[in-house]
Amino acid sequence: MVAGQTLDEKLETSPLIYVKESKRVDDKDVKVFDFVHDTYRDFFLAKYFADEINSGRFSIKQDYVKQWCDFTSYGYPCVKGAVKKAIIFMVDMLNEDNLADILDVCSRVYPRLMEHYVKMNDGFYDPWSIQEIEFAFEVAKASNFPTEKLPQEMKKWIKYSSENCSFFFYGHHFKEDFGFRTALFSEEAQNYIFHALPKEKKQNLINWCLEQHTFSYSNLLFGTEENAIIIDYLSNRPDIRLNYSTFYYNLLKYLEKNDSTVQLWIDFLKSGKPNYDYAAYVLGKFEDSRAVKPLIDALVSQTKYIAIPDYEENISPFLRALIRIGEPALPLLEETLLLRRDFRKDMLYAIIDIRINGSQEADDVLRRNVTAAEYETLCLKYEDLMLPVEICKEERKQYLGWLREIGENIEKYF
Predict the structure, then answer these.
(1) How far, rounded to the nearest angstrom, does the alpha carbon of residue 177 sit from its chain's CA centroid?
(2) With 193 labelled, which of 112, 292, 311, 370 sits at a CA distance of 20 to 30 A?
(3) Contact 268, 235 (CB under 8 A)
(4) How far apart are CA 89 and CA 43, in angstroms?
(5) What is the rounded average pLDDT for all residues in the chain?
(6) Could you tell me which residues are beta bridge partners of residue 126?
(7) CA atoms within 13 Å, Cβ hemisphere of 399
């Protein structure tokens, strides 16, 4: 703190803090400060707890348990909201012995909590109380503590909550809450919870997200069952057109590629059912050569393509998928170029894009099917892109290296 500077003046200079309100108390002007985002509050609270615990000034087994008893308006103890969130951050700052104590406390406290709660409510069971078990799960998984060391009692409660308490039983709030709450879980934990849900509940959640055009869950992996749910929803809802950014950036990253899922989307593409064109985006993302012929068949059979909303380029998704697949698509692209002159422009567009990505094979196909004059014209039209193939390859390699570097050093950019 600068000499002569008051605490209020110091707080006002912090980019993490703002003046929430000013009011008069005992004839004095008092400023109420708050963090610009709750996460900062949670983190600093977590840092305080972690320092106190690691230094031995705060006992988990004695003092921490008291935190469960400071709010009893519903007849059962629970952790204050701020403390609950802070613990999730705190576990990464604790040494292994303290983590073991945290897990031990959770495993001992939760069964007593539930027993006390049910007794207070004459045996009535309310799924809201499951948030306490979810919290224990968050603490356990976020800590990177070995799974085999989790007490069996906690494993039993986790399994029960996943099977019997839907995160979206009670309408809108629970559906949104699932994404928010799981955002703090480890990747393993998110998938554990999601895949432990019964099929009907899982289907309700996915359908709701599709209707709301939102997927906010990170690190989930949608396997064969989940892909089938998405396809069933799309094929039976001709009134729904998901915008491009929602489908491409929010949903595709969750889809697992395996033989079953690839075949599911190929079958959907061939079916011609409502929204079948979304299959092209999935198959393009999968980059599987088995999809080349179905994609070309879909492309040449369409009479008029209605663009997916919010798509930055009004390009057929079938063509875009073929470009993503790359060199494996070239033989059929060339064959179609020769047999279907009405699609010559589309085929050339795809071949040029593959060539721009550094494919010598695409360059050979292009030279075989256009005159020397046409080739020169294309080079002039795409002068910044139609560079020699080796240069294209090198530039692509440098670009991917740059992206990789950003990913590895992401913290310094924010």
Answers:
(1) 14
(2) 112
(3) yes
(4) 6
(5) 69
(6) none
(7) 8
Amino acid at 123: G
Q: How many CB atoms lie within 10 A of CB 166?
A: 21
| C-alpha pair distances (Å), 86 with each of 80, 307, 346 | 10, 46, 55
Q: Which of 184, 23, 5 is nearest to 92 (CA)?
A: 184
- The tens digit of pLDDT for each residue in 252-272 reads 777 888 999 999 999 999 998
- Per-residue pLDDT of 100-122, as tens digits, reads 777 666 666 655 555 555 555 45
Q: Which of 43, 44, 37 is nearest to 16 (CA)?
A: 37
Instruction: Return the H-helix or E-strand segment holding 30.
Output: strand 28-35
Buried b vs exposed e over 298-324: b needs ≥16 C-beta within 10 Å?
bbeeeeeeeebeebeeebbbbbbbbbb
- The number of beta carbons lying within 10 Å of the beta carbon of residue 84 is 18
Integer CA distances (angstroms), 249 to 243, 271, 281, 282, 308, in order: 10, 25, 11, 11, 14
Q: How far is CA 4 from CA 38, 98, 212, in A?
A: 30, 41, 54
β-partners of residue 34 are 18
